[in-house]
């Protein structure tokens, strides 16, 4: 299924920066689907196996194994973002022929890594078209393994202008919503925040976000997972089991949220 032939009903944004998942630009969908699911046995450097975590994305150590065995289709697309800029994006498709909702996956400070690809793949397994833009498209980073690219990506991301980043994300979101059958008139903006209880810097943003979104009449629901640290989905074996406990609770909550507002 190509990007041009994919019929969609919505566009959303998911950010795993700081371990939080932020969802906006949501359009309800009504089409049913039978999503494929896949989980490969993986283990981390600590020796803790993630075998059997069906329906969860892998952690960083298991990303390549999951991707190499995934039955789902993915492809690169180039999206014009205005001002002579363009951004490349990885699109992962669910194994379905009916209309599907779209999720915009925003990568973390390490760039569009194998792990971010694997998160997109898991979203595809759950029935969503996942679009992961590479915000470092125009930064001339070398190709190579994550261990080589990640330090370079981290340095460059710190120099990005937030307004420029927002324009890129807006263009990618518009690309998703412009696919056939997008229903823009019923756009809603519920926000789901999933936070590690030990991530004090990020958690400090919750009260002002709650106040601002409520004042705007927006739906904002958040969960704090006790003991979990920053980026718990990426580091699932950290914090003496708290990160895995948070992952096991947060990912199903995320999928349930998508299905509540996007349809299943």
Characterization of this structure:
The strands form two sheets. This protein has a five-stranded mixed sheet, with helices on both faces. It has a two-stranded parallel sheet with strand order 6-7. It starts with 7 loop residues before the first strand and ends with a helix. Residues 1-52 and 183-187 have low confidence and may be disordered. Helix content is 31%, strand content 19%. α2 (114-125) links the parallel β4 (100-106) and β5 (129-133). By secondary structure, the protein is of the alpha/beta class. The protein has a single domain (8-262), classed as Alpha/Beta hydrolase fold, catalytic domain (Rossmann fold, 3-Layer(aba) Sandwich). The chain has helices spanning 63-68, 114-125, 146-157, 162-177, 200-203, 206-215, 242-262; strands at 8-15, 73-82, 85-93, 100-106, 129-133, 191-196, 220-225.
How would a textbook summarize the main sheet? 5 strands, mixed
Residue-averaged pLDDT: 77
Second rung of CATH, namely the architecture: 3-Layer(aba) Sandwich
Order of helices and strands: EHEEEHEHHEHHEH
Q: Please state the CA-atom Rg, rounded to the nearest Å.
A: 17 Å
How many individual β-strands?
Answer: 7
CATH secondary-structure class: Alpha Beta
Summed up, the domain count is 1
Please report the number of helical segments.
7
């Amino acid at each position: 299924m190509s990007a041009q032939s994919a019929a969609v009903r919505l566009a959303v944004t998911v950010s795993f920066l700081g371990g939080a998942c932020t969802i906006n630009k949501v359009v309800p969908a009504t089409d049913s689907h039978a999503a494929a699911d896949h989980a490969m046995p993986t283990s981390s450097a600590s020796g803790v196996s993630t075998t059997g975590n069906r329906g969860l994305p892998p952690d960083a150590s298991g990303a390549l194994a999951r991707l190499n065995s995934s039955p789902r289709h993915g492809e690169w697309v180039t999206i014009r973002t205005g001002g002579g800029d363009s951004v490349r994006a990885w699109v992962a498709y669910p194994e379905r022929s009916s209309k599907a909702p779209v999720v915009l996956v925003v990568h973390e400070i390490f760039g569009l890594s194998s792990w971010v690809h694997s998160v997109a793949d898991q979203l595809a397994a759950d029935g969503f078209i996942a679009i992961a833009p590479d915000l470092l498209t125009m930064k001339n980073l070398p190709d190579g393994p994550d261990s080589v690219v990640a330090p370079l990506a981290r340095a460059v991301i710190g120099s990005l202008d937030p307004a420029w980043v927002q324009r890129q994300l807006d263009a990618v979101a518009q690309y998703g919503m412009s696919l056939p059958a997008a229903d823009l008139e019923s756009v809603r903006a519920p926000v789901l925040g999933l936070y590690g209880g030990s991530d004090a810097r990020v958690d400090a943003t919750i009260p002002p976000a709650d106040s601002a979104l409520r004042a705007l009449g927006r739906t904002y629901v958040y969960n704090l997972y006790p003991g979990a640290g920053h980026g718990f989905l990426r580091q699932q074996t950290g914090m003496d089991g708290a990160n895995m406990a948070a992952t096991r609770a947060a990912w199903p909550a995320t999928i349930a949220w998508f299905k509540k507002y996007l349809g299943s």
